[in-house]
Amino acid sequence: MATMTDPPRESFRLSMLIYDTRYRSLTIQVIALFAFMLLVAWIISNTVQNLASLGKEVEFGFFSEPASYDINQRLLEYTSRDTHLRASFIGLLNTLVVAVLGCITATIIGVLVGVARLSRNWLIARIMTVYVEMFRNVPVLLWIVFAMAILIESLPSPRAFRGEDAPQSLILNDSVAITNRGVYVPEALFSRSLGDVRLFGESSLRLDVSLDLIAIIAVLAASIFVFRRIRAWAERVQNETGNRPTTWYFQIAVLVVPSVILLTALGFHLGKPELKGFNFAGGTHLRNSLIALWIALSLYTAAFIAEIVRGGILAISKGQTEAAGSLGLRPNRIMSLVILPQALRVIIPPLISNYLNLTKNSSLAIAVGYLDITGTLGGITLNQTGRELECILLLMLIYLFISLSISVGMNIYNKRVALVER
Amino acid sequence: MQKSVFYGALAAAVVIGGAVGAATLDDVKARGNLNCGVSTGLVGFAAPDASGNWEGFDVAVCRAVAAAVLGDPQAVEFIPTTGKTRFTALASGEVDMLARNTTWTFSRDTDLKLDFIGVNYYDGQGFMVPKALGVTSAKDLDGATVCIQTGTTTELNLADFFRVNNISYEPVPIETNAEAQQQYLAEACDVYTTDASGLAATRAAFESPGDHVILPEIISKEPLGPVVRHGDNEWGDIVRWTLNALISAEELGITSANVSELAGGTNNPEINRLLGSEGTLGDMIGLDSEWAQRAIMSEGNYGEIFEKNIGENTPVGLARGLNAQYTEGGLIYSPPFR
Q: Which domains are present in chain A?
């Protein structure tokens, strides 16, 4: 009779960490982690030690010193007497402006081009292919510099607008001036303005918010709310009785009348640009540095987005198009109602990374003299104060924060359009 | 550009230990050539000629130092730096010295941990405008668009000048002199402002220099000079006294033509001490006795360098003015070699 005995229990020996395949990978990972942490610790201690021996300890006190330099494009009021912190803040807003503008136009152009690349019209499809290949395969810095060079060299200078029979004149009813220093467009002015409120007191982050703008937004929001209620009411009536009441004139009135009344009350008028001294005065000045950067970043990123959109559309089975066609939908509506909503699920994730790329690429702005956060905090401030480490670290953190915010926002949107599976 | 700033900062942060700890003189000797930071191209001060050799007023200082230390004025590697990258390049050890129209200021000398070893050009910030604008004074520039090199002291002076005079302007920041030239000539800016010497040099490179005027106002003091890292005093002494040797040579009448002859010995003890036939001045800064001889022989004395590169007979056409020897009513003055 054989007796079954338990196999002898192996006791743990130290050599098993290397020879036993159950533990080996763990051992290697722990060692690698230690080595990595040692490396990081060495780099940090080396940096701190060397900065100390140079007599440059890490400190951020310079942020409260006056910046002493001017920034041409500023969304908020800023003078050269403001602090470095304020200058960095202005730069950050400039980064955000070009990033937001760029993402919007890149998406619009990208979707149009992506759809057009699949067109059955041979010429359109080929032209779009040429566009995509050209922009995708040349570094974006070159496109930015090229766009700037074209704006500077091909457009007339403000001087060409001067005199009785000037060689150049303003377009669109004398309201828009296109020069090699940028485009001057009319600005909205209010003769009975409500004024501004100042947030955050006199600190470096102070913010003047126009009450006119708030009033307009509030009225528009109210109008849209009422507009929707009317539509919901019409829907209900239709569901109950089968007859849809005619409401369009009512809806238009709700949208337009309150805004017009408000604008008249505020004394709304357009301030046109006028040649005065060396430059145009009045109106809003879109500098060519902004325009060049915006155009180049949009076209460059749009080429990538076009490919993503094309891929997304091709991922939807042809049966969907045919099924929609057999229901009697026209090609335009098939695209907007059936194909694109489904394609979005494929498109959104890579689109996020392209938005991030555009935002990060906007740091090339200084090539055309656009003072974004890299140009202010990572450029002039760094240079004038000599605080390389502090400025670069802070700059990296700011970009990280912007990128992660975009990422989080887009991921939330992605969850909403993603296929809900059970 | 961004890259170089970033790498510069990283290098400043990480590599600096090695660079600062060791003596620059030993590094240069071991390497066999001098890394000299110059501007990215400013005719007369530092620019490569048609065959790619760097030449100019600032370049000559680098060559003199290389001749003094290494015995060969050609043993220089010229590293172009922009207004933004120059200090990081120096701090990180990428270059051994800067000879690049850099203004000596309090905060650069102290807070940025640099050492200015002297002044080789007394300058001031000026404005250049096209003649066609009919502007005669900088105070008429209200509302003008001004091209300005970013990361320079001129940027700060400009802001102060317009603020103090209560007039407005639109700054267009640009990275290098070449870009400024392009924007200015395309009339994307009305005015170009930088050091007056730089304006003269830039104008000299124009197709029709006569169509542009430099306004009479000089709005700042811009003493330009070579720079070394703070903390390596031996190296700082070598660069300082090489520059002083060039200046003294002009004062004492030593030129590149007669330096070999005078080195044999004269009855002027200061010449003898400078050229090494008397005393041991070379030993005191860790060089041989003929260091100053070679420095003067490389490109000539201060006056020769000035006349050859930026003087009145060159396209740049600058008068000596403040940069004449003190004996001629200028500010150029070397402490005695004793």
A: 74-153+288-422 (1.10.3720.10)
